[in-house]
Write a structure and sequence with these properties.
This protein has 13 helices and no strands. By secondary structure, it is mostly helical. The protein is globular and about 50 Å long.
Length: about 290
Amino acid sequence: MTERSVSTRLPTFVGISTVLMWAFLALLTAATGTVPPFQLAAMSFVVGAAIGLGAVLRHPRRFAVFRQPPLAWAVGVGGLFGYHALYFTALRNAPPIEAGLIAYLWPLLIVLFSGLLPSERLRAVHVAGALLGLAGAALVMTGGGLEIKWQFWFGYAAALCCAFTWSSYSVLSRLFRGVETEYVAGLCLAAAVLSALCHLGFEETVWPRGAVQWLAVLGLGLFPLGLAFYTWDYGVKRGNIQIIGVASFATPLLSTIVLILFGDDPFTWSIGLACVLIVGGIVLATRGR
């Protein structure tokens, strides 16, 4: 085992922990009721920013961590806000299953783009593992059936841009290893402001009703749309980005399993086969590490 593999082990596991938090995204989003997407994103990003601001206040340089190169801010804000804006646009202009699957090409793109990074080596097992993971994710999201209707080309295009946005943000973050993860609090705050502006321009305000819906919004901001961004930033900057990318294909599978456990979805043959494909892809990508 090389010294580099030992030094990247903890950040890799931290990055993969993001997948566990994203697994609860669908359940918590459904529990928020009819809150519009951009409003929900703005509320969640505010909670996510509050998490990081607590860490910023304990940082030796405090708010000086926000003094970062403009390009770092452009990449970060573009990643967090751009991904969600494009994703919501895709879902509004194309069937959710097809749009979601196209948007979920980002783990494969992360693996492929990582080969362009300095000191990174893209191996055949990484690509093979990513393709197995993509097949498993496709089974979960489509149930074995998929129908592309080209009248929804605009939504499909937005979904494809969505995939390129998150994968580019993840890979380019690798170039800013010197930027402390605490600065993600600033990204969340900027994304909250932009989401609020989009909400005011395109949506009608609908507030959560009852304690359960408010707790769901808080849960979203604490984990899938909060802490997850910090662990992802730390993982893709310092961990094994190829393995993290392949492991991300487990997100729709774990999300479906969470829904099954809470009684919202039945277990099907496609889910069982997806388990084999995704786990096989992860094992293949991590071979020899």
